[in-house]
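Request: Have a read of the protein record below and say how the chain folds.
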Amino acid sequence: MHELAIAQGILDIALSTAVNHNANSVLGVKVIVGELTGTVPEALEFGFVALAKGTMAENACLSIRIIPLTGHCRDCGSQSSIDKYCFACASCGSHAVEIITGRELKVESVEVE
């Protein structure tokens, strides 16, 4: 369950942000998670809530935005969604597909009080 390690990283960033802004608490954290990371949103949220207990982020709301996996075909130039990790172009069938989105994993914002 790599979500627990990711949740710890998110919590560390949120707490550090709160300390740097002399805040009393973390109200919310927005994260962007690409589909290719294999992160299960429910597991990430569970891990965050468990790790945040007893911290300034104990009551923080974790908002997770999933970024779909998309690719660009180097042969025909089309851009399409990549479904079920099938890295073939939906237009021409080529496997010369470059990933455009879906690898993201970052904290987008931290709301503190």
User: Anything to note?
Assistant: The mean pLDDT is 96. Strands lie at 26-34, 61-67, 70-73, 79-81, 97-101, 105-112. The radius of gyration is 18 Å. DSSP finds two helices and six strands in the chain.
